[in-house]
Amino acid sequence: MTGPLISAADLLARLGEVELFDLRWSLTDPTHGVRAYEEGHLPGAVFVDLDRDLAAVEGSGRHPLPSVSGFRETLGRLGVGRESHVVVYDDVSGGVAARMWWMLRSIGHHEVKLLDGGLQAWVGMGYPLVPGRVTPEPTTYPAFSEFTGVVRHDQLEGRVVADVRAPERYRGDVEPVDPKAGHIPGAVNYPIAGNLDNGMFLSGSELAERYREFPDDGVVACGSGVNACQAAIALVLAGRAMPDVYVGSFSDWSRRDLPVATGPNP
């Protein structure tokens, strides 16, 4: 599979050939995802819990990466093997599902795609949803040594950070979850909503124009290292190399004795 996206029509034609995962999640209701999944999901889709499966309990920020061994065990439990063709989706235009896409890409698993437009695109085409749960057949994922493309708070000096949170959080007008409001000094606001048109990703040329001033060695960040992965997909669609991700993001930065900027400017 080439490119980071798959359309609903193409996915329909490939059902049964891919490993399909539902990553619906809500910041305000941790039970939303699994309840919505059980009410109706794409045929064959396995539910993936962002907090349990794609993040560690402790670490930098609200969604730290799991250990290498932990993620390998999770992939095996989910039935993902080294040759699996993986498709992920959510109901927020990739804002959550992109985390699994990026984590797989980070360990060198390139056969992974995001459903463009997510659940809404599937339903909008009149395609079916099924209730209940799908239990995957466990497998063993081969060992890998590390997550690549990860930066820490002390590795940001001299690099442009794209803060992809909503403008009101970037400015510091509101902050619903982190201890300080505002942004990393020098970070430029690229809200992930700007990568989309009616829930679908913009064309490669439109995204290339949007990120025209973003440097090749730039870093993407958000609140907790999840939405930033949607921006990573946008940059790949724009013809850019995979950007580094500050996984701790503002949830890590704001918990340290570090300066925080407010207002609309970097």
Question: Could you characterize the architecture of this molecule?
Answer:
This protein has 2 domains: 120 residues, Oxidized Rhodanese, domain 1; 104 residues, Rhodanese-like domain (Oxidized Rhodanese, domain 1, 3-Layer(aba) Sandwich), CATH 3.40.250. The protein contains 10 helices and 12 strands. The strands form 3 sheets. A 5-stranded parallel sheet has the order 1-5-4-2-3. Strands 6-12-11-7-8 form a 5-stranded parallel sheet, covered by helices on one side. Strands 9-10 form a two-stranded antiparallel sheet. Strand 9 and strand 10 form a beta hairpin. The longest helix is centred in the N-terminal third of the chain and has 10 residues. The mean pLDDT is 97.
Total helix count? 10
Order of H and E elements:
EHEHEHHEHEHEEHEEEHEHEH
Which structural class matches the secondary elements?
alpha/beta
Report the mean per-residue pLDDT as an integer: 97
Low-confidence stretches: none
**Number of DSSP strand runs:** 12
* Domains (count): 2
CATH class of the largest domain, named Alpha Beta
Q: Which geometry do the CA atoms define?
A: globular
How much of the sequence lies in strands comes to: 5-15%
Q: What is the helical fraction, as a range of percent? A: 25-40%
Q: In the CATH hierarchy, what is the architecture of the largest domain at level 2?
A: 3-Layer(aba) Sandwich
Strand order of the largest sheet: 1-5-4-2-3
Q: Tell me the CATH topology of the largest domain.
A: Oxidized Rhodanese, domain 1
Q: Cα-atom Rg, whole angstroms? A: 18 Å
**How far do the termini sit from each other?**
38 Å
